[in-house]
Amino acid sequence: MYQRDLTDQEIALYNADGVVLVKDAVDPSWIERLTAFAEAQLNNPSQLCNDGNPGQERGRMFTDRYLWRTNQTVYDFISQSGCARLAAQAMGSESARFYFDHLLIKKRETATPTPWHQDVPYWPFRGRQIASIWLALTPVSVEGSGMEFVRGSHKTEHFYLPTAFGASGEKVNSWTGTGEGVPCPDIEADRAAFDIISFDLEPGDALLFSAWTLHGAPGNRSSTQDRFAFSTRWLGDDAIWDPRPGTDPSVNPAEVRVPAGQAPLDNAIFPRFY
Ligand SMILES: O=C(O)CCC(=O)C(=O)O
Asked: Are 72 and 215 in contact (CB under 8 A)?
């Protein structure tokens, strides 16, 4: 099965911009398998889902996560697709440990934006080598809720205070309890003041970005194209366990079994795939 490496130029872009477009990131067969999984999940979500408009074909933002422990397709993908190696290469890390999977769907005509944010304040880890691979399962453009990034924003030392995600004021399963950080700049109020970049993706293309990079996405304005993406989250060599109050409630600290400040153990909670 096809797997690829990052080129030196892609690694340089990741380091400079905090995000890089990886064309044909995985074997095309994954797109078919993950799309079937995503459709099934829409009809039978897990307890960790956020669903803005259940059952609707339009105006529905849907997210679900942590499916790798129960879903064979997701497990096969994270262990066999080569994403672990891509993440390690971008992060400049000897290893890539898996954190969690995240299905992110905005059906056509979904007004709900993804607010501008940085990922690391939501997560019970700290370190510079933490990254996501956001894989497009459908064609994606900014008009169809493609992601936008503030170029170079990963170089900050700031934590930006988390804001709640979700449709129509729905705050179920949001992770906003941490008090650490400074307010996120109001990027929408003055977009010209920020170096905002975005990308068009075909199914199988991915955005590989640092957990420190400011990013968001507008609603899906397309009347014909749903937006399906599947994101996997990766921890590199310097990532340490840092369970701050209010971060990811789906991790059970008792299961992690290391003191704060240490790297996770090599066990089935956050397994190494590279
Ligand atoms: O898909 C989206 O709209 C947002 C995704 C995101 O913020 C992420 O993967 O960190």
From this structure: no
